[in-house]
Amino acid sequence: MLKFTFEGEKNFDYKVLCLGAHCDDIEIGCGGTILKLVETYPNIMFYWVVFSSNLQREEEAYNSANKFLKNKHIKNIVIKKFKDGFFPFIAIEIKSFFEDLKREYSPDLIFTHYRQDLHQDHRLISEFTWNTFRNHLILEYEIPKYDGDLGNPNFFVNLNDEICQNKIQYIIDSFPSQNNKQWFTEETFLSILRLRGVESNSPNKYAEAFYCRKIVF
To answer: What is the reported pTM?
Structure first.
């Protein structure tokens, strides 16, 4: 299995862009990898964008982002209020935001939704990510859900137990508005980390998985 790391020194100023349709998507999809990057690269910087929220979820999203980024790796946190579930019908407004974002920030790495995700909001964000950032390393994360749309990822980030436990606890603590949902449990989040750990032969049992369409080595 080929292993990949950033080039350069650990103190290099890498720039990361995290895109999520809803307030907990980034954390669920790539929260462990974010924690590992923060731990590994002390000067790494994040631009964190959530596209749909309300007053309660906006507060939760800011709280969560600051936990994951530990308050010192933040370029910007942007919480938008595009209508949940209606992204394909308001695509012009979302596309305009992407164009503004492209002019403002040029990241080394982008996290976005999986293009085959069955949630319409997720798919649109993935599509616009690729339309907007055409010469960047893009990793598409996965969200477990009722639709059963998990696929066969080809890029894995091995995680240790501490990072996995921190990821799960931050999510559960940060989003109390979601605690009444039957899927929003520690068991759900740990299960997919363990499954991807098996698939990637992770020495610490756990991993997050991504879809990488294009990569230049």
So the answer is: 0.94
